[in-house]
Amino acid sequence: MTVKEEMVIAGKIHGTHGVKGDLKIEIFPPNFRLPGIIYIKDKEGNYTPLHVEAYSKKKGLIRFKGYDSLEKAKKLKHRYFYVETSKLPKLDKDTFYEYQILDSEVIYNNKVVGKVVKIDDRLSTAYLIIKCTDDKIRHLPFIKEFVKDIDPQNRKIYIQPPEGWFSL
């Protein structure tokens, strides 16, 4: 299937539940209203639509049309699922989805100094993991003091790192 719009990972299909084709599902964006069609991606990067037949947000279970048995449902387990970016809930100003920040160029004093390769949000403060032009990986706290501006359309992040950050 050819997809015209940008797709983004919206969650993960975990293991099966019961014998009728139900699957455990985890949805990543908070307050996300699951659309009637979601997609899985094959090894070649092609998207296959899955039509939602039943979904229980409370139980975290989903069933898809055509996958009404345990054997059929097993083919979908442990897969990420995708939705069109237009289906994602709108965020408040100065709030971004991870896909909008990953691979962004990091700019300091009008020079590209690296690229965001990961976001580590396991601690109370999130960190941008930046692969710098000198091939070193540096961590920058994702706070206004150091991250001055984010331009998601042009994939650019403007920073003012702490003194000595480049010598780390």
Account of the 3D structure:
The chain is mainly β and 168 residues long. It has two domains: 81 residues, Elongation Factor Tu (Ef-tu), domain 3; 63 residues, PRC-barrel domain (SH3 type barrels, Roll), CATH 2.30.30. The protein has two helices and twelve strands. Strands 3-4-5-2-1-6 form a six-stranded antiparallel sheet. The chain has a six-stranded mixed sheet with strand order 10-9-8-7-12-11, with no helix packed on it. A hairpin with a 4-residue loop joins strand 1 and strand 2. The longest helix is centred in the middle third of the chain and has 5 residues. The N and C termini lie far apart (46 Å).
List the helices and strands and how they pair.
Blueprint: E1 7-17, E2 22-27, E3 37-41, E4 47-56, E5 61-64, H1 70-74, E6 79-84, H2 98-101, E7 105-108, E8 111-120, E9 127-132, E10 137-141, E11 147-151, E12 156-159
Parallel strand pairs: 7-12
Antiparallel strand pairs: 1-2, 1-6, 2-5, 3-4, 4-5, 7-8, 8-9, 9-10, 11-12
Give a short overview:
The protein has 168 residues and is mainly β.
User: Numbering strands along the chain, what is their spatial order in the largest sheet?
Assistant: 3-4-5-2-1-6
Number of helices: 2
Beta content:
over 45%
Which parts are unreliable, with pLDDT below 50 for 5 consecutive residues or more? none
The top level CATH class name of the largest domain = Mainly Beta
Query: How widely separated are the two ends?
Result: 46 Å
The CATH topology of the largest domain is Elongation Factor Tu (Ef-tu), domain 3
* Level-2 CATH architecture of the largest domain: Beta Barrel
Helix percentage: under 10%
Report Rg: 19 Å
- Characterize the main sheet: 6 strands, antiparallel
What is the H level of CATH, i.e. the homologous superfamily of the largest domain?
RimM
Question: What's the average pLDDT?
Answer: 91
